[in-house]
Design brief:
Blueprint: E1 2-7, H1 17-28, E2 32-37, E3 41-44, E4 51-54, E5 57-58, E6 64-68, H2 75-78, H3 80-87, H4 96-103, H5 105-114, E7 122-125, H6 131-137, E8 143-146, E9 156-159, H7 162-176, E10 181-185, E11 193-200, E12 203-211, E13 226-229, H8 234-246, E14 251-259, E15 262-269, H9 275-281, H10 285-301
Parallel strand pairs: 1-2, 1-6
Antiparallel strand pairs: 3-4, 4-5, 7-10, 8-9, 8-10, 11-12, 11-14, 12-13, 14-15
């Protein structure tokens, strides 16, 4: 089978470790695989036969495409190429609409809450006029503040006082050019730890406990957090799978915390990294993704 790994990295950068792992896993399974940079692609609309070109020439023929959408701004514009592949009948894992939904933390919260999946209490704030009210609603300080978009811990801060929160709001709203923020309760009992569950299809294929480094509250591995293998409960696994499904994703990285109210989902990642996860758990996550993508093609051909 011909598998395309669609990279959103600039043409000047080297491929990510995850992209290279996917190519290796595909070839080990006997498939053809190739990394294609979005920056080298063109969309053509002529009123008759819309097409995707690569460096001005016919786009390579793939049976399935696995995108690595590493963008945070103007996501819908960047995923337009995925929508075009879908319209052309090429299977894509993940599809454009679920990616757009998951990349927006506000939309994610809306969908998860609607389906009764546990999340930390969150207030969507558009004006500092209601700051005191929002702080009271989430149980007082410390509080977590997030922008609607962000990854690897960017756009997330912890505030210990109203002064700090107000200053952070101003700074983030200026940096992100958007006056919307998510004010979220701080789960004290998590003690700076969360759990990453990697979901492929309807299965949790790898899990890892992440602990924040000294002086940091965010447990992201990219920010120096430490990871260790962990067994999750059936409820935690079920919540991760349900969160993935209701968002329409097929591959996801679900981050949750253990709280006194049960597992609460912090975020659902549509472009989850898995390099450290493979190192910590010994699980072949790349192989699981490729096998799922291949099975999707086979299923659609029946």
């Amino acid at each position: 089978m011909r598998i395309g790994i669609l990279s959103y990295y600039p043409a000047s950068k080297r491929s990510s470790m995850e992209e290279l792992r996917l190519v290796k896993a595909a070839r080990e399974l006997g498939h053809q695989a190739r990394i294609i940079r979005v920056s080298r692609c063109q969309l053509v609309y002529d009123g008759d036969h819309p097409s995707v070109l690569h460096e001005g020439k016919a786009f390579p023929k793939f049976d399935v495409i696995i995108p690595r959408v590493s963008v945070l701004k103007n996501v819908e514009l960047h995923t337009a190429i995925l929508k075009q592949f879908e319209l052309m009948g090429i299977p894509v894992v993940n599809r454009s609409r679920p990616i757009n939904r998951a990349k927006n933390k506000l939309h994610t919260m809306q969908v998860l809450n609607h389906h009764g999946i546990g999340v930390p209490k969150t207030i969507v704030l558009r004006s500092q006029k209601y700051l005191d009210w929002a702080i009271k609603q989430v149980g007082g300080f410390p509080v977590i503040m997030k922008t609607p978009f962000g990854s690897y811990g960017s756009g997330v801060v912890i505030a210990e006082s109203k002064r700090a929160l107000a200053s952070s709001l101003d700074a983030l709203w200026t940096a992100y050019e958007i006056n919307i923020a998510l004010i979220q309760e701080y789960i004290k009992e998590s003690k700076g730890r969360d759990i990453r569950l990697f979901v492929v299809g309807r299965k949790v294929v790898a899990t890892m406990m992440r602990a924040a480094s000294k002086g940091e509250f965010r447990s992201n591995i990219e920010l120096g957090g430490a990871g260790e293998k962990i067994e999750v409960t059936p409820e935690e696994a079920e919540n991760a799978i349900r969160a993935t499904e209701v968002l329409g994703l097929e591959v996801s990285g679900v981050d949750l915390v253990r709280s006194n109210k049960g597992p609460l989902i912090l975020e659902v990642n549509a472009n989850p990294g898995f390099k450290k996860l493979e190192e910590v758990t010994g699980r072949d996550v790349a192989r699981a993704i490729v096998e799922y993508a291949v099975s999707k093609v086979v299923k659609e051909e029946k």
